[in-house]
Amino acid sequence: MARRIVLTSGKGGVGKTTVCAGIGIALAKKGFRVLLVDADVGLNNLDVALGLEGRIVYDIADVLKGKCSLKQALLQDKEFPSLVLLPSQHGFDCNIPSSALRAMLAQVENSFDFILIDCPAGIDSGFHRAVCVADEAIVVTTPHISAIRDADKVLSLLETYNLHSISVVVNRVRGDLVAGGNMMSAGDIVRLLRHSAIGFVPEDDCVTVYSQLGKLGLSDSKSDKSVKLIADNIVSGTCKVYDCTCEYRGILGMFKRYLRRQV
Amino acid sequence: MNEGLIACDRLRGMLIKDKLDMSDGFLSALNNDLVRILSQYFRLKNDNCKIIVDIDSDNNYVVKINTSADFIKQVKTI
Q1: How confident is the model at residue A91, as a pLDDT?
Q2: ipTM field
Q3: What are the pLDDT digits (tens) for A227-236?
Q4: Chain B interface disruption, residue of A139, A144, A145, A153, most B CBs within 10 A
Q5: Pairing between β-strand A136-141 and β-strand A3-8 as defined by DSSP bridges
Q6: Which of A28, A18, A34, A77 is nearest to A206 (CA)?
Q7: Interchain pair B4, A192: CB under 8 A
C-alpha cells in the first residue's frame, strides 16, 4: 500500500512543484514506484516540471467524467519508468470533490510505493482536497518572511487533519548569505516553525536551467543532492539535511561569497 | 546584531502575534475579572492589571499579570 504524501506551502512560488517532482524522481531512481498527482487544478505545472506536457491525452477531470479509465490517464516518465504522473486539468470547468480523488487513489494505491500529491497554493478548497487524501504532509517554504509566515499558518491548519507526520522543507536557501550572517539559517526557520525538517534545498541555477528544459533530476548539482537526501529521509525516517553553507565557509568560501555578491 | 538575527527576531515576533488570536474584548474581559478577584484580597492602587500573553518554546501560552497594591485585606479562612 502506497504512502500518500502531500506537498503544500500556503504561499505560491516557493518551489513546491519543483520539489515534488524532484522527490518523485529521487524516489524513482531508488527503484520505488512513484505516482505524482497534480492536485493543482487549473494551474497545473507538474507535467511541465517533468517535461511531459506534450504527452497528456487524458487528465483527472476526464477520469471523473468517465471519458477514460484511471490507467489511461496515467503518464509514464520518459527517463524513469517507475515514475508516473496523474495530470491535472488545465481548464476551470471541473470541481473535483475530495471523495472522488480519494476513491481514484484507492484504485491504484497497491500499484505504487509512494503517491506524492502536489497541492495548490492557498488554504481554500483545493488545499483541503489535496490534504484530506494524504497520510503525511511536507510543507515547503523559502527563507522569505512572508513564505515562512504562511507556512506557519499552514502548519497550524495541518494539525487539525488526521496526518501521521508533518515536516518542513526549506527551499532556495542562499548559503552565501547565511554563512555571512545576512540571512536566517534554515535551522533557525525550522526552529521557529516548531516542526522537524526533512530537508534544506540550496538556491541553485541548475534548477532554473534544467526545469525549463523539463529535465529535472538529470544533473548532479547541489540541489539534486539535497533532494536525494530528502528522499532518503522519507524512505528511512532519518533526518539528514544538506548543509547549504558548506561551500561558503573558510577562506575560499569567503572569496566565493564576495564573488557571488559582486555578481 | 547581524541582519540574519534581526530577521529571526522579527519573524519570531510576527509568528507569536499571529498565534495570539485574541480580540481586544478578550483581554479587557480578562482584565475586569482579574481586578474583581484580586480586589477581594488586595487594595489595588489603580483598578487595572497589565496582562502580557506570550507563547513559550513548547507552544504553551504564558500569561504574565502585573499590578500593584498598597494593602492586603484580612481574609478569614475556615
Answers
A1: 67
A2: 0.78
A3: 999 999 999 9
A4: A145
A5: parallel
A6: A18
A7: no
